[in-house]
Specification:
By secondary structure, the protein is of the alpha+beta class. The chain is 57% helix and 7% strand.
Length: 486
């Protein structure tokens, strides 16, 4: 199937969305710093969009005295001259716009024109580092993926850790997937994710990560595969003679292939995670006041309060002004209104979602990580009365300041496990229990993953040994042999 055939229905569906809807979606998912930058760019491109500046009392008094002074006639003349100059400038802009519009109106809608102008502005600004999720999702959009598997691929991508590894076993991933997945769908989706760049992405452990980076066309493929699968510990310990004895492979070949294996990237996700250190600004603040939790949105001091310039409003209301100028200004006013409405809608949605998160995670706010509840975005969406995708966009790259610390808002959405007494425990709480068990173990005789699994089972958390191993590695906790102190 041709790629353009696959993408055409998606493109047609996207073009049916109103410009206001597309802009609202874009604004909703922007973190505060990116939103400030976006607004500043819009103010530079749209002359009718202005920042509300409240003058100080001293300035107001001075302006009043100036208005009452005899020089006010001169001021009026200056204002008229400025207005004349501004009208001439707008006339020139409108003329340029009219020429451009007349050339393109026959083949492009006004919406596409606005989008192209935005694209041009974006191309003239410094590019931002792309995240691993954005990079993978971009590739996924170009791959011919069955509709039934695309949600599963996205679910896997957003569950990769900073190293690019799948942080949960597929059996656990499908329990909290939205929409529900079968284990076969999850396995098929994982194979698709694992063909994306960089090589090794989507692996579940180091061996799989290295194997995904091998090329079957290489002459040493079979040797490299055998060494990775069977002798990885020996490679790390440089026990080359032992490998040669067990594998019957020439030691020189072993050294040569091991040198190649060492060039592979054991952490493909690190290509993205170290590109820039994000500056975290919480957008939501949660405080315990008078016996209850209060939610407030933190407006950054540099965030401009926007309004539409009264000067341009007057121009379009005057009958003697140039029709093309009025049309140009009217379009800019509509664009400014859309932006202001989208920002207000963003505030409203973010506040409603935050309030519901606080309501559903009150025990965590009171007691800490062990009381973090399992929570799905669909639960919040149903409670607030919005689509689950709106919740996902509202919390994207946004942080909440709470009595327990500052957390990314997606932290509060986690799967879980039903304990022996029937209660649900979040995976974060289980990880914390695992860390506490290891912290209290004997340093001279550390616990194996099997023993840790037994201790968790005794406390009501019945998870497999391999799950303990997975969590321990994700938490960067060494194995029992490496933790032993003599």
């Amino acid at each position: 199937m041709r790629m353009d055939t696959v993408l055409q229905p998606q493109l047609q569906q996207k073009m049916k969305l109103a410009p206001q809807m597309i802009q609202s979606i874009e604004i909703l998912q922007l973190p505060i710093l990116a939103l400030i930058e976006h607004v500043q760019q819009e103010m530079e491109q749209n002359p009718v969009l202005e920042e509300v500046i409240e003058p100080k009392k001293e300035e107001q008094t001075a302006e009043q005295e100036e208005d009452n002074s005899p020089a006010s006639d001169t001021s009026d003349d200056n204002i008229n001259d400025e207005r004349k100059d501004e009208l001439e400038r707008l006339g020139e802009i409108a003329e340029d716009w009219r020429d451009y519009y007349s050339q393109t109106a026959t083949r492009r809608s006004s919406y596409v024109e606005d989008r192209d102008q935005k694209q041009e502005a974006l191309e003239n600004t410094a590019s931002k580092p792309i995240s691993m999720e954005e990079y993978l999702m971009g590739q996924l959009s170009l791959v011919d993926v069955p509709d039934s598997l695309r949600p599963a691929c996205e679910q896997i991508i957003f569950n990769l850790d900073n190293n690019g590894y799948l942080s949960l076993p597929l059996e656990e991933l499908i329990k909290t997937a939205e929409p529900p997945l079968t284990i076969k769908q999850a396995k098929d989706a994982l194979k698709i994710v694992q063909i994306l760049e960089p090589p090794g992405i989507g692996a579940r452990d180091l061996k799989e990560c290295l194997l995904l980076q091998l090329d079957k066309r290489d002459a040493t493929y079979e040797v490299a595969k055998e060494l990775i699968v069977n002798y990885l510990d020996d490679i790390q310990a440089k026990r080359y003679s032992r490998i040669a004895k067990k594998s019957a492979i020439n030691i020189d070949t072993i050294k040569k292939v091991i040198d190649f294996i060492r060039t592979l990237n054991p952490k493909p996700g690190s290509l993205f995670s170290n590109e820039h250190a994000p500056y975290i600004i919480p957008e939501v603040k949660v405080e315990y006041i008078d016996g209850k939790y209060e939610v407030t949105l933190l407006e950054n001091n540099n965030f401009p309060q926007l309004h539409i310039s009264p000067f341009y409003r007057r121009i379009i209301s005057e009958k003697d002004s140039d029709p093309q100028t009025r049309q140009y200004i009217q379009r800019k006013i509509e664009s400014a209104r859309w932006l202001i409405d989208a920002i207000e809608q963003r505030r409203s949605t973010l506040y409603k979602v935050a309030v519901k998160i606080v309501e559903m995670q009150k025990e965590f706010l009171n007691e800490g990580i062990f009381h973090l509840k399992t929570l799905k975005m669909q639960d919040v969406a149903d409670a607030v009365g919005i689509h689950v995708s709106t919740v996902s966009r509202a919390i994207a790259h946004k942080y909440m300041q709470t009595p327990q610390g500052i957390f990314e808002m997606k932290f509060f959405f986690t799967g879980g496990f039903q304990s022996a007494d029937g209660t649900m425990e979040s995976w974060e709480a289980i990880r914390q229990k695992l860390a506490n068990i290891i912290d209290k173990e004997s340093k001279s005789n550390p616990l194996s993953d099997e023993e840790i699994a037994e201790m968790l089972k005794a406390s009501g958390v019945d998870i497999a040994r391999r799950t303990v191993t997975k969590y321990r590695k994700n938490m960067k906790i060494p194995s029992s042999r490496q933790r032993r102190e003599f």
